[in-house]
Amino acid sequence: MAKILEAAALTKLPGKWKLGADQKSIQQSFKFKTFAEAFSFMTHVAFLAEKADHHPDWSNSYNKVEVSLSSHDAGGITQKDIDLAAAITEFVWLPQ
After folding, report:
1. Residue 65 is part of which domain span?
2. Which of 76, 85, 94 lies closest to 22, judged by CA?
3. Which among 59, 66, 68, 74 counts the fewest CB atoms within 10 Å?
4. For the domain that residue 32 is a member of, what is the CATH number?
């Protein structure tokens, strides 16, 4: 089982990721110009998630995508979440 990270480790989150209200996830909202851009972003993140074997909880409404990362099997935030957040942040073409 993956190790749950201490709160101090979360200060190194890339981009504008924030601790979720549940204290067991990290979350970020992304806004794009169009639905097609939002869908393209989600498609790319899906490939990143498959490669990492770690999948986000997310929702999409037109040009907005809400992403939440948590290691459910560990019961909180692990290095897998931080690594996927970094990969997503590195990919995003919009200023965050």
Report:
1. 7-91
2. 76
3. 59
4. 3.30.1360.20
Task: State the distance between the two ends of the chain, measured CA to CA, in whole angstroms.
Answer: 32
Tell me the pTM.
0.87
Give the integer Cα–Cα distance in Å for 80 and 94.
23
Instruction: Quickly list DSSP for 23-72.
Output: SS-EEEEEE-SSHHHHHHHHHHHHHHHHHHT---EEEEETTEEEEEE-BT
pLDDT tens column, 42-68: 999 999 999 999 999 999 999 999 999
